[in-house]
Amino acid sequence: MSTASTAGAAATPSTSATASQRRGRGGRERILAAATQLFASQGINATGMEQVAEAAPVSKRTLYAHFRTKNDLVIAYLHGLASSGATLEAVLTREDIPPRERILKLFDQPASDAGTVRGCPFIDAAAEFPDPASAAHSYAREQKLRMAELIAALLKELGCREPSALAEQLATLADGAASRAMVLGDADYGRHARAAAEVLLEHTLPGTN
After folding, report:
1. What's the sign of the alpha-carbon dihedral 175, 112, 49, 89?
2. pLDDT digits (tens, 9 = 90+) for 49-64
3. How far is C-alpha 182 from the geometric centre of its chain's CA atoms?
4. N- to C-terminal Cα distance for the chain?
5. Is the CB of residue 29 less than 8 Å from the CB of residue 35?
């Protein structure tokens, strides 16, 4: 066998593996994983569909078979974040933590695999899609309203007489702290908002003042 033939045979498994990965199952999951990483690191509008396909890796045909438009991919990405348990408000549904502590844990910055301090991805998405009627902005708004509703439900459980108003105040503190943590690169920045939240709770909940 010639040297050229041997080299060609040696290259075949790697080439076949790459082609198999591009054609194989799990394409949707790889696309969403790639989009999540890219959207978080460089922004949604700055990320092209070709970049996502390359990072997945999948062919552009496979990418568009799963997501006909970039908007479809963005909404799927936001849905995935909401169900991942890794967002700011995810702690509010954890039944292994007492209600008051769940609220205060809103001010703990979610861990990032990259070590970079991230803000709220829903606020980021709304900022990148400023039209209130856009699908991404509408979904971000739904998540922010749901966050306040979850806080209000916990406050009601704790005996608060005006849970909706206090929930909005606490949600504003949490979102503001997450944004400043990202801008300043300070993962522990939430401690400032947590101190303010503790004062609000102490002066509002029965039996705590």
Report:
1. negative
2. 999 999 999 999 999 9
3. 14
4. 87
5. no
- Whether 146 and 128 have beta carbons less than 8 Å apart is answered as no
Alpha-carbon span 187 to 111, nearest angstrom: 9
Task: Please state the length of the chain.
Answer: 209
- Give per-residue pLDDT as tens, 64-121: 999 999 999 999 999 999 998 888 888 999 999 999 999 999 998 776 665 688 889 9
pTM score, whole prediction: 0.82
Cα angle 74, 79, 80; round to 5? 95
What is the CA angle 23-26-30, rounded to 5? 95
Q: 3-state SS of the chain?
A: CCHHHHHHHHHHHHHHHHHHHHHCCCHHHHHHHHHHHHHHHHCCCCCCHHHHHHHCCCCHHHHHHHCCCHHHHHHHHHHHHHHHCCCHHHHHHCCCCCHHHHHHHHHCCCCCCCCCCCCCHHHHHHHHCCCCCCHHHHHHHHHHHHHHHHHHHHHHHCCCCCHHHHHHHHHHHHHHHHHHHHHHCCCCCHHHHHHHHHHHHHHHCCCCC
What single letter denotes the amino acid at residue 41? S
